[in-house]
Amino acid sequence: QTLPGVASGIEGSSAIYVRGGNMGNNLISLDGIPIYGSSHLLGMASVFPSSMIDKTEFFVGGFTSEDANFSASHIKLHSKEGSFTDTTIAFSVSNFLVSGDVSMPIGNKKMSLIASARYSPLGMEYKMIKPLISKSANLPDSISAGVYDVFVRLTYMANPSHKISLTA
């Protein structure tokens, strides 16, 4: 967000403005698939778990016909591949998101799985802090803030130079 001609949106937002274009002029793709609406929680969180992204490419010109008619930029994200040898598990907790990740081989080490699940605990947090807020504030009893996502990628390795992946 600090390259020449690139400006960030308002604080707490994931919007970027490239060379005078608006957010709608940027193409964001994951493994070649265009992604529209690439943020949660009014732009405070990306729909892409950072633990699932392997590489990011940022293009601001020289677009091909594959890039459709976007005029500002193309952000190409490439997802990670699961491990064919080791199992790793990770958990993360913040006030916005609770997440868990797993990467593991399946069967005879010809298949791998990588997965991430995230959930926003904002509704639960609201219930916990509401009694601490003044009763005169006239706040609702609860809020529905059920933001969540799941990312899964299965990869089958036929041989070292030929693989097929399914991403959901």
How does the SSE layout of this entry go?
Elements: E1 6-8, E2 16-18, E3 26-30, E4 33-34, E5 39-40, E6 45-46, E7 53-59, E8 73-79, E9 88-93, E10 98-106, E11 111-119, H1 122-129, E12 148-159, E13 162-167
Parallel strand pairs: 3-8
Antiparallel strand pairs: 1-2, 3-4, 5-6, 7-8, 9-10, 10-11, 11-12, 12-13
What does this structure look like?
With 168 residues, the chain is mainly beta. 5% of the residues lie in helices and 43% in strands. The protein has 1 helix and 13 strands. Strands 9-10-11-12-13 form a 5-stranded antiparallel β-sheet, with no helix packed on it. Strands 4-3-8-7 form a 4-stranded mixed β-sheet, with no helix packed on it. The longest helix is centred in the last third of the chain and has 8 residues, at 122-129. The chain is flat. The two termini are 28 Å apart. The mean pLDDT is 80.
Features:
168 residues, mainly beta, four-stranded mixed β-sheet, 1 helix, 5% helix
How large, in whole angstroms, is the Cα Rg? 20 Å
Number of helices: 1
Largest sheet, spatial ordering of strands = 9-10-11-12-13
DSSP, total strands: 13
Which percent band covers the strand fraction?
35-45%
For the record, give the distance between the C-alpha atoms at the N and C termini, rounded to a whole number. 28 Å
Coarse structural class: mainly beta
Largest sheet: 5 strands, antiparallel
Q: Please mark out the parts with pLDDT under 50 across 5 or more consecutive residues, or reply none.
A: none
Oligomer: single chain
Mean pLDDT: 80
Shape: flat
Q: Portion of residues in helices?
A: under 10%
